[in-house]
Specification:
Layout lengths: L15 H7 L9 E8 L5 E3 L7 E4 H13 L4 E6 L17 H12 L5 E5 L13 E2 L2 E2 L1 H18 L3 E4 L6 H11 L6 E8 L6 H6 L20 H13 L3 E5 L5 H11 L3 E5 L1 H12 L5 H15 L3 E4 L2 H7 L3
Parallel strand pairs: 1-3, 1-4, 1-12, 4-5, 5-8, 8-9, 9-10, 10-11, 11-12
Antiparallel strand pairs: 2-3, 6-7
The structure holds ligand PBG.
EC number: 4.2.1.24
Protein name: Delta-aminolevulinic acid dehydratase
Family: Belongs to the ALAD family.
Length: 325
């Protein structure tokens, strides 16, 4: 082992110039994906109390945000839909004219160069807020999967580049791949939420997406926070079923999972730095307890350092603006 005094690690920390030369992990706007929330109407731009800087927008306003994301060099946008009507089966989510498909068509017509991902899940569209059809008080896996496949095909038909199933039903990646291929969308990629945990950090998102369950919770579908070997099994299943990119979610509390999924699959890994993780930093910064911008960048850098190739982040736009994009 090299030792002191011939070796002095501080030599490489003397200036920002030298620090940036030896920096092992860098963060670029193109590493980040910006979540956007589309609501019905025109001219709507509605802030959300628990998520500073995040708004529900109608498709026309969303187009402006998407245009800015493209101009700033952000890696892509991830669309979530909040429909006019919800029902037991979430049927407003998978018809050909669903709110997300309409927004995708508008974006692709005006901004063909912007990478568009779509959330595939029923929780925003069901009256009970669960991620699928309910039978005997729980989400019915096999009845839900075909509906998710329909939603993915509808998004792909509108021009989505990537569909991102976030529901955690078993077998949905294979069913979605087959449905996409059968419909001729062989080039549409699947970003599968392979390891999505039943997390307390999703609270603010459920305010934005209006998707909190009206009874029970999501623990029968989402993973137990204590498990990492199970995450590797989930990742392998999704790869076998045709996933192109694997998601780990949340991110900051699951850095070991990101690291192991990357190391053991070798697949592209996306991490979702979720609403609660973002909101905690915002709230502490508002109280003057931490430097919010530095903490956001540090968190995102740590997520990349752990092995994520890309990060979904509510801070993407602020980061890109600050990077001089
Ligand atoms: C489900 C979904 C959720 C999030 C993304 N997709 C919420 C949930 O599982 O309850 C959470 C994202 C976040 O907290 O930022 N469609």
């Amino acid at each position: 082992m090299p030792s002191f005094p011939s070796h002095r690690p501080r030599r490489l920390r003397r200036s920002e110039t030298i620090r940036s030369l030896v920096r092992e992990t860098s963060l670029l706007p193109s590493d980040l994906i910006l979540p956007l929330f589309v609501v019905p109407g025109e001219g709507v731009r509605r802030p959300v109390a628990s998520m500073a800087g995040v708004e529900q927008t109608s498709a026309d306003e969303l187009l402006r945000d998407a245009e800015e994301a493209l101009r700033l060099g952000i890696g892509g946008v991830l669309l979530f839909g909040i429909p006019e009507h919800k029902d037991e089966a979430g049927s407003s989510g998978y018809g050909g004219d669903n709110i997300v498909s309409r927004a995708v068509r508008r974006i692709k017509a005006e901004l063909p160069g912007l990478l568009v991902m779509t959330d595939v899940c029923l929780c925003e569209y069901t009256s009970h807020g669960h991620c699928g059809v309910i039978r005997d008080g729980d989400v019915d896996n096999d009845a839900t999967v075909p509906l998710l496949a329909r939603m993915a095909v509808a998004h792909a038909a509108a021009g989505a580049d990537v569909v991102a199933p976030s529901d955690m039903m078993d077998g949905r990646v294979g069913a979605i791949r087959k449905a996409l291929d059968d419909a001729g969308h062989t080039e549409t990629a699947i970003l599968s939420y392979a390891a999505k945990y039943a997390s307390a950090f999703y609270g603010p998102f459920r305010d934005v997406a209006e998707s909190a369950p009206t009874f029970g919770d999501r623990r029968t579908a989402q993973m137990d926070p204590g498990n990492v070997l199970e995450a590797l099994r989930e990742a392998r299943l999704d790869v076998d079923e045709g996933a192109d990119i694997l998601m780990v979610k949340p991110a900051l509390a699951y850095l070991d999972v990101i690291h192991r999924v990357k190391a053991e699959t070798g697949y592209p890994v996306c991490a979702y730095h979720v609403s609660g993780e973002y909101a905690m930093i915002v709230a502490a910064a508002e109280r003057g307890w931490i430097d919010g911008d530095r903490a956001q960048v540090e968190a995102l850098t740590a997520i990349k350092r752990a092995g994520a190739d890309m990060v979904i982040s509510y801070y993407a736009r602020q980061f890109a603006r600050r990077s001089g994009g």
